[in-house]
Amino acid sequence: MISQLAHRRVAVLCGGFSKEREISLVSGRAADRALKAEGFETSLIDVTRDVAALVSAITASRPDAVFNALHGRFGEDGCIQGLLDMMGIPYTNSGRLASAVAMDKPMAKRMFATAGIPVAEERVVTCAEAALGDVMARPYVLKPINEGSSVGVKIVRAGDNHPPIDDLGLAPDDLIMAERFIPGREVTVAVMGDRALAVTEITTGRDFYDYEAKYAVGGSTHILPAPLGPALYERAMELSLAAHRVLGCRGVSRADLRLDGKDFYMLEVNTQPGLTPTSLVPEQAAHAGMAFADLICWMVENAKCDA
Q1: What is the distance between the terminal CA atoms of the chain, rounded to a whole angstrom?
Q2: Span 30-49, average pLDDT
Q3: Residues in contact with 94: Cβ distance below 8 Å, sequence separation at least 6, in sequence order
Q4: d(CA 127, CA 136)
Q5: C-alpha dihedral over 269, 154, 26, 38, to 10 degrees?
Q6: Burial class (CB in 10 A: 0-12, 13-18, 19+), 238
Q7: What pLDDT, on the 0 to 100 scale, is given for residue 220?
Q8: How far is it, in rounded angstroms, from Cα 56 to Cα 35?
Q9: What is the pLDDT of residue 51?
Q10: Three-state SS at 28
């Protein structure tokens, strides 16, 4: 069925220059195809560091809305959102403040804690300090404070050699977060507007749900709906909706949680969830009765800016 907003022009931003560029290209192309099929006039724009060229490309496409399919730094951390706010063009998903806070893992965890959402203990240290030895009792997780898709995440377990961190491309005085490792089951919940869609349990044969497990075919198994029992299932939905709200998110977000057997711990909220063939949000939307094209159209129809 052709969208009621078929006359609208949409600029689809994808690519970018973060470590998640290739995933963003897949997400952007998928959104572009779906919008074209629904009668939208689209322009697919590969975002580079040339801001003047980006502004020119967006302006030339004369969009009524921007579909933001960028992932990672400069795409989901408030930067592109701020530019679009200045241009006065509505865009999909969260605004600049929610995007920036969600991408800053330590700050997001402080926000979760104020809302009574359980989080694991953490320390923010320099890379130089983390390279010297353990910065908290094992097991713990080292993660960059502002990357997505598990980029650069390392688990330090009892008996392990200390993992090298010089492959993260960070300077010695750059900050990194050490977080207590939560054993147990991993689940994720998509939030769409004011409702949580479903709970998916994720299993993988890898050490944890890392970049390869997320995006490689066969890298993980998604169990939907998660076999948690009614009380825990509802608890995961409630925590994810609360996290979406406390950050001030809009549009679609996805919360990642760990279940230690008794309760959930919020790991992070992704304000620009992937739209690839292995991505979780489209799966949960389908489980809730929404086709991929309908999900994409809903995101465009709910585009806003903070101009």
Answers
A1: 32
A2: 97
A3: 81, 102, 247, 248, 249, 250, 251, 253, 271
A4: 14
A5: -20
A6: middle
A7: 82
A8: 22
A9: 96
A10: helix
For residue 105, CA distances in Å to 48, 74, 222, 232, 252 come to 25, 15, 25, 25, 19
Domains contained in the chain, CATH given: 9-92 (3.40.50.20), 101-118+183-293 (3.30.470.20), 122-180 (3.30.1490.20)
pLDDT in the model for residue 164: 67
Model confidence band, residue 165 (pLDDT cutoffs 50, 70, 90): confident
What single letter denotes the amino acid at residue 293? Answer: A
Catalytic residue numbers, as ranges: 20, 149, 215, 254, 256, 268, 270, 274
Nearest to 271 by CA among 123, 89, 144, 149: 149
C-beta of residue 295 within 8 angstroms of C-beta of residue 282: yes
Question: What is the rounded CA–CA span in Å between residue 131 and residue 129?
Answer: 5
pLDDT at 305 exceeding the cut of 90: yes
